[in-house]
């Protein structure tokens, strides 16, 4: 029974990796530069001054 109970948590983790770290509603689609991380959707990215993953200053945003 343990294998079955682990599968749903794996699925929800995958969804969490794709959703915006700010609003959790939209998918992540904006690349921060120069670090190259994708942490937010295009609507939330202008509000983010430092990368939510590595805390590096965001100098550019690419959708």
Automatic annotation (TrEMBL):
Keywords in alphabetical order: Metal-binding, Zinc, Zinc-finger
GO MF terms held by the record: zinc ion binding
Domain RING-type: 20-55
InterPro entries: Znf_RING, Znf_RING/FYVE/PHD
Zinc-finger found in the keyword field: yes
Protein name per Swiss-Prot or TrEMBL: RING-type domain-containing protein
């Amino acid at each position: 029974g343990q294998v079955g109970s682990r599968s749903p948590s794996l699925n929800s983790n995958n969804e969490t990796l794709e959703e915006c770290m700010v609003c959790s509603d939209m998918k992540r689609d904006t690349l921060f530069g120069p670090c190259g991380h994708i942490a937010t959707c295009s609507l939330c990215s202008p509000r983010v001054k430092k990368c939510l993953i590595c805390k590096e200053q965001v100098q550019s945003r690419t959708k």
